[in-house]
């Protein structure tokens, strides 16, 4: 039988506002501006998910979907705040593994990494991970960052009706992503889904992706329906970062501070 597990973030304060960590059989979305630690959180949790339960882990494997962005595509995004890396860094996994006394190679081997090159491919990969999950003890699925490729593929620069068409295609695709994610974690597998997302604060960027106040996740409410827990990350004082629960089925809207170290997310 499946039992809900909680996977630690690496920060005790962050874990506390989550009620222990990110839950399996649930979708969570962390969103925030560039450099606030979304990718670092994803890397940290990819190691912690493998640890024993008493260390905040779920004793499982990890699937990690990263995005491949090239410079031309970055231009198309019309924003200087674009996710510049969005990709998986094995050497960071090794560093974080050392913090937890885990063999770096073992930690890397337990993470199945795939890089999506466009939004279509991202969808294919999502369907593929479902196959990987069958008969394997996967406990965490990372998608970093879920909207980056959609922004590239569907940012319209053309005529109004052309843009409207792109918008419709985009929304339909997004609905499929949301459905695939919901199926993955709610119905079939004991997996925590953690997706990262950016905020759109550049007024020159496509209205399609803009949040009203720059503190909204890219992609808007369709994706929001798929995520049970949504957390806003932002920069705090000095090196500090702040996590704030925005939507949760069972936790109040509290804040926690954390820092990013060589060993990943910490207090
Ligand atoms: P975008 O993907 O650009 O939207 O940002 P993000 O939210 O994913 O930020 P990310 O998780 O990449 O955090 C970047 C920050 O992490 C940097 O500004 C550094 O402060 C910190 N960081 C990255 N790598 C290391 C490292 O090896 N050691 C330490 N101590 N900090 C690091
Ligand atoms: Mg990132």
TrEMBL record:
GO BP, one example?
Answer: chromosome organization involved in meiotic cell cycle
Asked whether the UniProt record includes Nucleotide-binding among its keywords, one would answer yes
Tell me where in this chain the RecA family profile domain is found: 3-199, 206-267
CC annotations in GO: condensed nuclear chromosome
Query: Which GO MF term does the entry hold, naming one?
Result: single-stranded DNA binding
Keyword terms: ATP-binding, Cell cycle, DNA-binding, Meiosis, Nucleotide-binding, Nucleus
Q: Does the keyword DNA-binding apply?
A: yes
Q: Where in the cell is it found?
A: Nucleus
Q: Which family does it belong to?
A: Belongs to the RecA family. DMC1 subfamily.
What is this protein identified as? Meiotic recombination protein-like protein dmc1
Of the parent protein, the shown chain spans 94 to 360 of 364
């Amino acid at each position: 039988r499946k039992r809900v597990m909680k996977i630690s973030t690496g920060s005790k304060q962050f874990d506390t506002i989550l009620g222990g960590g990110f839950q399996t059989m649930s979708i969570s979305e962390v969103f925030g501006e560039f450099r606030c630690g979304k990718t670092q959180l994803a890397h940290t949790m990819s190691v912690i998910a493998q640890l024993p339960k008493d260390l905040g882990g779920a004793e499982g494997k990890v699937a990690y979907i990263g995005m491949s962005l090239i410079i031309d595509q970055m231009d198309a995004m019309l924003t200087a705040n674009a996710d510049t890396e969005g990709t998986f860094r094995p050497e960071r996994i090794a560093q974080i593994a050392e913090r937890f006394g885990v063999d770096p190679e073992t930690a890397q081997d337990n993470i199945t990494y795939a890089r999506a090159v466009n939004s279509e491919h991202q969808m294919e990969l999502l369907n593929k991970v479902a196959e990987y999950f069958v008969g394997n003890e996967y406990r965490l699925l990372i998608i970093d960052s879920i909207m980056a490729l959609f922004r590239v593929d569907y940012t319209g620069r053309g005529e109004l009706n052309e843009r409207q068409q792109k918008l419709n295609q985009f929304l339909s695709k997004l609905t499929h992503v949301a459905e695939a994610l919901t199926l993955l974690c709610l119905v079939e597998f004991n997996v925590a889904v953690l997706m990262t997302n950016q905020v759109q604060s550049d007024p020159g960027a496509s209205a399609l992706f803009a949040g009203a106040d720059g503190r909204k996740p890219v992609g808007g409410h369709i994706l929001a329906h798929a995520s049970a827990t949504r957390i806003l990350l932002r920069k705090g004082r000095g090196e500090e970062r702040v996590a704030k629960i925005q939507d949760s089925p069972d936790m109040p809207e509290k804040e926690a501070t954390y820092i990013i170290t060589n060993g990943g997310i910490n207090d």
